[in-house]
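User: My collaborator and I are trying to settle a disagreement about how two of our proteins should look. Neither of us wants to argue from intuition anymore, so we agreed to look at predicted structures for both before our next call. Could you fold the first one, then the second, and keep them clearly separated?

Assistant: That sounds like a sensible way to settle it. I'll keep them separate. The first protein:
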Amino acid sequence: MKSITIKGSKREIVGKVATKALRNAGKVPCVLYGGEKPVHFSADELEFRHLVYTPNVYTASIELEGGDKFSAIVQDIQFHPVTDKIIHIDFYQLFDDKAVSLNIPVKLEGSAPGVINGGVLRFPNRRLRVKAIPGNLPDFINIDISKLKIGDKVFVESLMSDEFEILHPEDMVVVQVRTARAAIVVDEEEGEEGEEGATAEGEDAPAAEGEA
């Protein structure tokens, strides 16, 4: 999985007053959990733009003044309720031999024939919870939909890998092609018109015979 570098400084003083001062200076207070003890640090708000404001998922390489480096993932983000600015981030430290769970985006490839023929693509699960050691975490999970016809579904079971575990039931639907409601209505209307036409022809026939 790709990593974004975050450069920051350790926070020697924690508390509301110190935290407010950091935010006023354009910095985001952060805490790194998962190690022997929590690490409090801060970094410029701009440092997080590629890590937070993206549909992709990345690990973070945290580099602090003094030479300390940590590999981590975002555990929680707090935004200001009015401005939507980042006001706090919790990180969780990664270790090469310790598995972690992360929501990984699902990427669809190709065009489904069922959609071209009038079906509707339903994509209810755009992210899947995956568990793996950091080195095996995928950037995204690919699904080839180029053979999906109307009624076809892709289940979690078909996405299983030896490198990671998907933490969802095997029979959960990730993507499918459903019959369009409009197509059903059109079929029903055509069927009704056909029945009416047959009845009309049946009623006209005896009249024609009587006239003869």
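The second protein, kept apart from the first:
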Amino acid sequence: MRAVVHHEFGDPSEVLVVEEVPTPEPAEGEVRVRTVLSAVHNHDLWTIRGTYGFKPELPARAGTEAVGVVDALGAGVEGLTVGQRVVASTTFGVWAEYFVARATSLIPVPDALSDEIAAQLVSMPFSALSLIDSLGLKEGDWLVENAANGAVGRLVAQLAAPRGINVLGLVRRAQGVEELAKHGIGNIVATDAEGWQDKAREITGGAPVVVGVDSVGGSSAGDVLSLIAEDGTLVVFGAMASPTMELSSGTIIFKNVTVKGFWGSKVSRAMAADHRKKLLTELVTRAIDGSLTLPVDAVYSFDEVRKANTANFQAGRDGKILLRP
């Protein structure tokens, strides 16, 4: 079978190749899945660069989330059947024609969900929902986030709304406000506009912003911090622009702001099984009723995986980048 691999860490646009590798056989409790579509996530590309919290041995496969069809069952597997559509979101190396996963880690896909939605349903949406769930926010509370027009930003806004949580979104340019309006997302402020902080306070009506979420780093983290109320919390979710956050120590001290990190993978592993199932059910429900939108910007073949990496960081991208075998 064919799989995407890399023999060294580096820029995915330079180190990724497609090679013939042995087709895996499922062991006891495992399932072999034929890949249909796989999502390209930032953390996948950071892993290939060798800069993520997980660093595989070389040569390494790539990819962590895919929708596929059960192709073979290992001994002792129950509850799944050959030909059934499933999602894998915790299996490493799914950018391949076939992959093997623990049966208990696979999620059956309802017929109402398309392959394009299923291929990106769990990893980022589950992280966004887990983040919201972990914050202890009450109905009517305000949260501010940057990169509001990014995948996580859109997800947080859409998943917070049914819980009655208000989200103030920051984008770097006015065009981002229009992009989000197409997804039914409002309360957005462009930070390249003069007086943007006054506009933000106008949107919240002066209500305290309890939590801020930074997915960008650099000076953008400081923009989020500036809007957080006294005794609030700044949650570091990502570092799209810079691994260094530019924060005012005075603001943190005098507002008594708590700064902490959030790593969805770690939170998911520690989560109780019944609570995880509850959140996954909420995700599927939102995707089916349309309150959670998961657009696709483009689909690339494995042979175009280097182009897919470049497209993933294209400014103004409106949707997920997917790979197909």
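Some points you might bring to the call about the second protein. The domain at 124-265 is CATH 3.40.50.720 (Rossmann fold). The CA atoms of residues 214 and 236 lie 5 Å apart.
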